[in-house]
Amino acid sequence: MKILVVNPNSSLAVTQGIDAACAPLRMAGGPQIECATLAEGPPGIETQQHVDGVVAPLAQLVRAREAECAAFVIACYSDPGLHTLREVTRKPVLGISECGILTALTLGQRFGVIAILPASIPRHLRYMGAMGVLERLAGEQSLGLGVAELADEQKTYGRMIEAGRTLRDVRGADVLVMGCAGMARYRNPLQDALGIPVVEPTQAAVGMAVARVRLDWASTRQT
């Protein structure tokens, strides 16, 4: 059994961070967790055009790997192509935004999201509106950093602390969701510093995928 976790941008550094975030979910007797980079993707998915542009190559990748994989995780907070990919395969396909938010709803009453860029927020709000969870959203705060800039640990962590405090103290969030797969390395220190749960969405999605595979909750989609 294999779960394929796909980074839809072309950054190998982001994929390495995703792979490290998945490490606690690898276990003896459990499914293999493979992290892959979509070579056709942009360096970072930061606009709606980026989101739309990776759907076709993601669909090609899922078709090519379907026979060997028991589930797929799309490791981008915009969940690009999620519903298209669910039409491409009968295997479970999970998006990290959907799974991260659903996990946050089990950990607190009001969740906040830390985004990378201000322009990401309207896209996220549209998605959360479609999910029907806006009443539980405390707010969303951006770092003002692109995906590539998240590698600067000192700058990124400082801004994450500021954003997290604003969401906690001003907006009333009692749980936070990290709004980019490239933030994975900061989850534990951020949670320790803020004293509230912090959800790393790739971990949330892969954890759900492991459960789906081990419990054999197969898709019931009719063809």
SSE inventory with pairings:
Blueprint (H helix, E strand, L loop, with lengths): L1 E6 L4 H11 L9 E6 L10 H6 L1 H11 L5 E4 L7 H7 L4 E3 H10 L5 E5 L4 H12 L5 E6 L10 H18 L4 E4 L8 H8 L3 E2 L1 H15 L8
Parallel strand pairs: 1-2, 1-3, 3-4, 5-6, 5-7, 7-8
In short:
The protein is α/β, with parallel strands linked by helices. The chain has helices at 12-22, 48-53, 55-65, 82-88, 96-105, 120-131, 153-170, 187-194, 201-215, and strands at residues 2-7, 32-37, 71-74, 93-95, 111-115, 137-142, 175-178, 198-199. It folds into two domains: 2-95 and 203-215, Rossmann fold, CATH 3.40.50.12500; 98-200, Rossmann fold.
Mean pLDDT: 92
Strand content: 15-25%
Question: Which fold name fills CATH's third level, the topology of the largest domain?
Answer: Rossmann fold
As a whole number of angstroms, the C-alpha radius of gyration is 16 Å
Q: Report the span from N to C terminus.
A: 24 Å
User: Total domains, how many?
Assistant: 2
- What is the CATH level 1 assignment of the largest domain? Alpha Beta
Q: Please outline the major beta sheet.
A: 4 strands, parallel
Cα shape: globular
The helix count comes to 9
Coarse structural class: alpha/beta
Poorly predicted tracts of residues = none
Strand arrangement, major sheet? 2-1-3-4
Helix-residue proportion: 40-55%
Number of strands: 8
What is the CATH architecture assignment of the largest domain? 3-Layer(aba) Sandwich
